[in-house]
Structures are given as structure tokens and as C-alpha cells.
Amino acid sequence: MRADFILKMKDFWRKNKTKIIIALLIWLVIVIINYILKNINVEITPKTTYEPHTAIMDDSNVPEKLQNPIEELISKYINYCNNKEYENAYNMLSYDCKNQLYPNIEDFKTYIDSVFDEKKAYYIQDYSNEKDTYIYSVCIFEDMLATGLTGSEVEYYEEKFVIRNNNGNLELSIREYIGKQDVQNVYEDEYMKISIENMVQTYENQVYTVKITNRCEYPIVLANGSEAKEILLGLKNESRNVKDLPRGGIVIYENQTKTYELKFTKFFDENETAQKLIFNAVRVLNSYSGREELRQKELDNAVKLYSIEIEL
Amino acid sequence: MKNKKTILTIMVICIILVIIITLIILSIKKDNKPEPNVTPSNRIETAEEKNTREIEELKGMGETSRMQFYVSKYISYLEEGDYESAYNLLYDEFKQNYFKTQEEFTTYVKNKYSDIITLDYEKTERLGPYYVVTLNFKDLINDTKNYTQLFVLKENGFNDFVLSFQAE
Question: Could you tell me if A32 lies within 8 Å of chain B, comparing CB atoms?
């Protein structure tokens, strides 16, 4: 009986020897892999909701290889500001940003002194990403760890820093400055000439520099706040009102040439593009006093009332 | 020749079995190690063991709970009279600004806090990597010692943090 069992076992072994060894080897490999995986020390870092390189606007991410360089760039700039190393901080700004916002370093110093009136701490949060341009919201506040908020509350100054990846070279702009474009579009008629010189894009606004020449003997009113939609920026599906009109409006007298900066809300990361500038209430008047009580009378005696659209 | 082959095969199998059994035993031994949060009652937990236990606890917490844990840890030191450990948790520049020496800190703490502290976490706000925890202190005996205090924290890793507070 026993001999029979042994014989059967031997026979089974002979027939299945290879399969058994392979099965054992596979099992061994699984056990070893399991053992190794169990013993790998994976460093777990605390999870937080703070994701500095994920854009608030659309959850897109700044490329991983740029995250550290961007952090270092901003840190270096803030350190210069904190240490009042004005020239070093100034030199970190992109050429275009310097030229447009602070053509001389004295203005820049005033700005730095107003923001960094004491040593400040900060944190960054990616706000929006458009191709090679990364807009970070930078919150600057008193070093609350150093003060423990003693005698103060949680307050911060927020500014958008723009970082452009120009072929691997990171260019920094502050105060949400994106760039400047030459436009050079001109409108002319018998009464005036309007020349659009350039457009400055910040994250939130477009600012058009417009030169207006009065060619006639009458005063021309383009905007004085008396009507709702005097100057508009025309987009494909909507129009936006001009912001921050100069005090006294836009009024050009005989043979005068004046330059204005017309500001409109137009976000850098919007899909719609600006298509035209609309001067919706051009008033060529016989006389203009600027007085409310005479407004209707002056309009009734107007030489011409019309509107203009200038393609961008 | 055939016998030799069989012996060789049996040896290979034996070696494989020995390796497997050794690995299994090692694995079982490791699994049977006492849990970090189980401290034998007949001995005092070392600082390292305590740190390991706390890290394990913290790993299962969200960020708000972790911040509250850190503040509680600081308060526990005060309650235990371990002012040195509490002082060591403070941010260096904060110490420089308000408590240059541990003695100054100890004097402040003894005057500020009641012997029995009752805490109520009002809210925890995050400002980037910083956290501001608003804490209500209640004195069950003396109502005049009820007040709110803000704590500012920054976490560098599990159980690795610095803090400061409204030193008023």
C-alpha cells in the first residue's frame, strides 16, 4: 500500500516536475516582490489644500520643471525688496515692464517702499496659465510668524506677478503687466482725427493710448459722463464701457490735439478678442460749457451728433 | 545519473522553500512588532517613541486637525509645566521679538493662563502655507480670564512645525 503510494507520487513528480518547479519559482518571485514593496520607505508628506502651482481659474498646472525656478525667481525678487536692494530688484524685471511701469528707478523705489514698509512674508498661488505665460497671485503680508499677529489682524496686499517663459528664460513682470502692442489704427473725418497708438495689456485690463486732433472750429465732446455708453470696447458678443474717464471728460477744442489712455476690462485669459473701439456719442457742438443745465440746449444746437467705430 | 538529477532537483526545491519560509517568518515578525501607539504600561515612552506615535496619528488627520493637534501639544506642555519644550516650539524671530529668554516666556505664561485651561477651537484659516488658529480660552472659575487668542503655525512635515501667538 505504502509502496504503491510512493510509486504514484514518484510518477506524479516525474510527469509534473517542471510545472511544480515553475509554480514554486513564480510563488517565490511574488513573495520577494511583496516583501520588497512592504519594506520600501516611502516618505509621506502632509497633505494640504495649498497647491501653489495649480491655477485657480482652470486647475491647470505649471510644468513641473518650471515650478522650482519660478519659486526661486519670486523669492529672490521679494528678498531684494525686503532688503531694499532696489537696483537688484529693478534689474530682475522684464525690459518691457520696466519701460512701461517704471522708466526710472526712483518711481520703482517709491513703489517698493510703499509695499515693503517693513520686512514682509509672502506666499504665491498660480492664478492663470496661458501658453508660456504664468500669472501668479502673490500675497504679501507682515511676517505673521514673527509677530504672532500681536496687535494686528490678518491683512495682506495682493498683486499679480506675470512670468513668461521665453525659450527657457523666465521673465518677471509685476503689477499684472503682460505686454504692450502697437496698434496704429487711424480714423479721420472733416471734424477730427483719432489715432490709436498702442495697447497695454494687464491681467485685468486693456489700456489704449488714443491721440485725438480737432480739425474744425467747434468743440468736440467724446465723453463727459452725461450718457451711459459714450466709449466702448467692442468684443464679438458684447461691448464694455470705458473705465476711469479723466475728470472733465474727453473734450477737444479747436485745433487741439490731446492724448488719452482709455481703459477697459478685458482679461488676458479671456477667449474673446477685442475687435473695435466705439465712440458712441461724438458731439460736435457750436458751444460747450460743461454745465448740466445747458446740456440739452447745447445738444439741440449741435453741428453734428454721430458715432464712430475703429477696427482694432 | 538519474539519481543525481533527482537529488539536485530536491535540493533546489528545498532551497526555494527555505527562502520562502524565511521571508514569511521575517514578515510575520515584522507584523507582530508592537503598534507604535501601544505603550507597555510598565515603562515610560521615550521621546522617539512618542514622536513616532504622534506622526502615525497625524498621518490620518486632515490639515485642520493637524493644526489643532499642534496647538494642543503646545498647550499640553504649558499645562504640564514643561516650559522648555513649549518654548522650543516657538518661531525663532517671534522669540527674538517677544521672549528673548525662556524665563521671560515662563513669566508671561504663568500670568496669562489659568491653572486649568479649557479650550475651544473657533476656526482655522489657511494663508498659503501659514495657518491661523483662533482659540477661545475659558476659565471655569474666573470669568475675567476668558479670552480669544490667535496662533500662527507653519508645518514643515509631520510633527515638525513652528508657531507663534498673539503675545498680548
Answer: yes
User: Taking a C-beta distance cutoff of 8 angstroms, is the pair A239, A233 a contact?
Assistant: yes
CB-CB contact of A60 with A94 (8 Å): no
CATH code of residue A97: 3.10.450.100
Which chain B residues are within 8 Å of A140, Cβ to Cβ?
A: none
0.85 surpassed by complex ipTM: no
- The structural domains of chain B, with segments of one domain joined by +, span 63-165
CA atoms within 13 A on the CB side of B116: 5
CATH of domain B63-165: 3.10.450.100
Chain B residues in contact with A141 (beta carbon < 8 A): 127
What domain range is A95 assigned to?
Answer: 64-175
Do A46 and B12 lie within an 8 Å CB cutoff?
A: no
The domain boundary, picked from A175, A205, A220, lies at: A175
Q: Give how far B166 is from chain A: nearest CA, Å.
A: 4
User: Is some CB atom of chain A closer than 8 A to the CB atom of B117?
Assistant: no
Q: Which of B56, B91, B133 would best serve as a mutation to test chain A binding (most A beta carbons within 10 A)? A: B91
CATH code of residue A251: 2.60.40
Q: Is A146 on the interface with B (CB under 8 A)?
A: yes
B100 touches A at CB < 8 Å: no
Predicted local distance difference test score (pLDDT) of residue B116? 75
Cα gap B59→B127, rounded to integer Å: 22
Q: End of a domain among A140, A175, A210?
A: A175
- Same domain flag for A302 and A191: yes
> Could you tell me the pLDDT band of residue B34, with boundaries at 50, 70 and 90?
low
pTM: 0.77
- Cα A181 to Cα A175: distance, rounded to the nearest angstrom: 18
**Mean pLDDT over the full length of chain A:** 91
Residue B33 has pLDDT above 60, yes or no: no
On whether both A114 and A159 belong to a single domain, the answer is: yes
pLDDT confidence tier of residue B142, bands split at 50, 70 and 90: confident
Per-residue pLDDT, A62:
96
Number of domains in chain A: 2
From chain A, the residues in CB contact with B27 under 8 A are 35, 38
Q: What does DSSP say about strands B130-138 and A220-223: parallel, antiparallel, or unpaired?
A: unpaired
Whether the predicted pLDDT of B8 surpasses 80:
no
Task: Tell me: do A135 and A213 sit in the same domain.
Answer: no
Burial of B142 (0-12, 13-18, 19+ CB in 10 A): exposed
Low-confidence ranges of chain A (pLDDT < 70): 1, 41-42
Looking at the structure, do residues A217 and A136 belong to the same domain, yes or no?
no
A102 contacts: CB under 8 Å, gap ≥ 6: A90, A93, A108, A111
Looking at residue B1, what is its pLDDT?
56
Task: Say whether both A111 and A145 belong to one domain.
Answer: yes
